[in-house]
Amino acid sequence: MSLVTALVYRRRHRLLGRLVQEALALYGMEVPAACEIGPGLSVFHRGFGTVLHPYTTLGADVTLYNGVTIGRADPWLPQERSAMRRVVVEDGAVLCAGAKVVCKEGVLTVGAGTIVGANAVLTRSTGPGEVWAGVPARKVGMREGAWAPPVPASGRPQADGADGSRSSTIPKRSR
């Protein structure tokens, strides 16, 4: 566990909480005590420039790179008038460098195992195991490798393609 990750988990300490918040600020991180963070958080590059909204929930084994922002899409409104309720980043999600996750209204959910690409601006919920990129972010593929979306109760994976095949890679660009 890195020093920054250890500080994130100790930010709610009864006596040292304020000191820990200031230490995180020296790294350029803002992680309010109200954020709910599951076990196994990974913060790369010391999280420089990372800002989390107080109404953020991070699941288990979430990975954050530097410059990630999770917050409201309507910062000009007072919090009590905002339509945003919460941002939930589910287990195993990866938010790459500079990714922005901004919630307009209700609850925005980043699905389990989802990857949000570098400098993407995500403004809507995602499904499990998806890859999102761009401004505004759009789905560009499915995550492959060690992480795979859960198999439905029927025991057969859902088909993505018309031929019943399951897409497991990011589509290649045509020339």
The total count of helices amounts to 2
Label the structural class. mainly beta
Helix content: under 10%
Q: Total strand count, please? A: 14
Lateral strand order in the biggest sheet: 2-5-8-11-13-14
User: How much of the polypeptide forms β-strand, as a percent range?
Assistant: 25-35%
Residue-averaged pLDDT, rounded? 83
Major sheet size, sense and barrel closure: 6 strands, mixed
Question: What order do the helices and strands follow?
Answer: HHEEEEEEEEEEEEEE
Low-confidence stretches: 159-175
Distance between the termini: 43 Å
The dominant shape is globular
Radius of gyration: 17 Å
Structural summary, described in words:
This protein is mainly beta and 175 residues long. The protein has helices at 3-9, 17-26; strands spanning 36-37, 42-43, 51-52, 56-58, 63-64, 69-72, 84-89, 94-95, 100-103, 106-110, 115-116, 121-122, 130-133, 138-142. The protein has a six-stranded mixed β-sheet, with no helix packed on it. Mean pLDDT is 83; it is low at 159-175.
